[in-house]
Amino acid sequence: MNKTFGLVASVALVLSAPAVKAQAVTDAGKVQAGHYAVEPGHTQVGFSVLHFGFTRYQGTFSGVSGTLDLNDKTPSASTLSVTIPVASVQTTSAKLTDELKSPQWFDATQYANATFVSKQVRRVGHNDAVVTGDLTLHGVTKPETLKVHFVGAGVNPLDKKYTVGFDVTGTIKRSDFGVKMYVPYVSDDVQLHIAGAFEKQD
Fold first, then answer.
1. Cβ of 158: how many Cβ atoms within 10 Å?
2. Mind listing the pLDDT tens digit for each residue in 56-83?
3. What is the number of other CB atoms lying within 10 angstroms of the CB of residue 157?
4. SS3 for 5?
């Protein structure tokens, strides 16, 4: 077969195939209640700090694990518990990434995980809630508050698992957890932006 013809035929076949589309609901009132586990491949914990007043520098953590017990009728009865491996931290600078794992910063060897365990879930809108819980980081536990926005839910067309997703934001002071390197030149306030995906367990 002519190579050019074969390439064209392959492209035409892909373009003519039915699109894979997720049938996601965006109404939190229609979400299935139950026990969920973090889907780590599509869960990202992002953070940013103001760097010398010039730029808002960003990084991420990955490999998150944990559970969500979701009560659609009584959201306040829902509970969340997540664990974040500190050594998963990544930035666009390999040197900085290694530095952040060191004892001067997160000390990933001594404090391997950060955890968040919810204490209260308060609905503040049809698709929004405020979650208060205990954040443990760098060996220190402090109460923190996160704003949670429901994005969507439905059966993932690729793995056929019922999935629910949220956008989460919040602000913490790193010095509260003993991470004080370069404060105030690198801001004490750390902005969090989390994409959380959870799969329903049978």
1. 9
2. 999 999 999 999 999 988 989 999 999 9
3. 11
4. helix
